[in-house]
Amino acid sequence: MSTLIGIAIAERRITSVDDPVTRYLPELARREAGFGRITLRHLLTEMRSHSRSRKALTSAPIRAAGAKTFPIVACSRTLQAGLEILPLTIFIPVSNIVFARVSGRAAAGPLLAVSFLVAGAASLALVALSPSTPYWMLAVALGLTGIAGGFISPAMTAATVNAAGTRHANTAGSVLNANRQIGSLVGIASIGAVLAVTPGWTAGAALSFLLVGTAYIAGALIAWRLIHLPERRQTTATTGPVPKPQPRHGRAVSWPDRSPSEHGISTC
Description:
Helix content is about 65%, strand content about 0%. The chain is an all-alpha fold. Helix 7 packs across helix 9. The longest helix has about 40 residues, at about 200-240. It starts with a helix and ends in a 29-residue tail after the last helix. About 20% of the residues are buried.
């Protein structure tokens, strides 16, 4: 980019690197008056205080083409980006309600493992994220993550309470909630650190989604190994082996208390 700017200056297409960017991209001035204080030198040196403006510059050709792209990169305003992602959060409470009906038909272990697996696959799909990624692809990935997350939370609660028993159910629920809060804080701090040290916002986002997806996949393996398999062994131990069906003919039937005729069965 610096070489191209140098060529443009040599050809007198650009006067100086101290020119405001709005001289060459006047549509930015209509977006926000603050762009008038940003020069080409600011962008070439990648000053962190102007990172938001760089995102707007990057997305300008995409917006001009009429494509609806990844909102965090494409929008110059954080509020607009948040409003575009907000509808996707509806999947979380809806799947919470659905879990209440599904949990009566399936154990918490497999539900938790499958939900972790779906969230991991959706997160790993976002590793290929770029400023030109269509919004619908982001919506599908985040929607699947929200649906899976709506199952993960109550499934973890059910598995923890079942393991603790009625006597320690309250303590188990409290410990689970405390660990979830700690995990959220550690996760947010970790992703923030990754974004801070990774050169380029897109590369940082891709690495962040890779870490998130890997954590989800690890959770699926742990849930399968430590929750589902013990549940299955416990169910087998409680119910016992399924008895084999006996042939209906060719074998005598014992009636210790009464004779066959007292049961209303013909001796023929």
